[in-house]
Design a protein that fits this description.
- The chain is mainly alpha-helical.
- The chain has a single domain, classed as Tetracycline Repressor, domain 2.
- Helix content is 73%, strand content 0%.
- It has nine helices and no strands.
- α8 packs antiparallel against α9.
- The longest helix has 27 residues.
- The protein starts with a helix and ends in an 8-residue tail after the last helix.
Length: 191
Amino acid sequence: MRATYTALCEHGYADLTLRKIAADFEKSRGLVHYHYDSKDHLIVALLEYLSDRFSDRIQATADESPSDRLDTLIEWLAVGPSLDGVDGEAYHMAIFELRAQAPYNEALRSRLQENFSFLKTTCEEIIRDGIRQGQFRPVDVEMTTILLLSAVANARDLELALGEENAIETVLAALDHFIFPQLYATLGSDS
């Protein structure tokens, strides 16, 4: 999975081949072909692997306050993870390319939907925990989740696809200015 991830981030989806993946793999190319029939089959497995890694990172924050967990989640979505020596921007570009293929590839779309469903459920759970603990005001959890996730994802896509500099920075500032004051029960000087 690491070799697939590195090759995807380096070459992009369109230029990715099993041969290029095998070049980053310490074992034989035949082993890649033995386990995966096609590039798309391998990419779907990669998305499951990335989702599992994300789940592990989320579990590592379980003891933090809901506000800290939400901040961490938003930061991960905005900046991207640094995985296997690949920076967040390369990660986001790779995922952006895969999303562009999803309308034409049912297996890819299904896996991306599963990953988004996990992300959405995670964000909803964090907000519900915050409401129960009195850190967040009672809000429409689904609506707030979709707003947060969509704002960050669309800003990131504007930067990637259109080169709109500072879109992420602007959206994060807007969330701080317009959304979080409505969500947080109290905003102290350290918020």
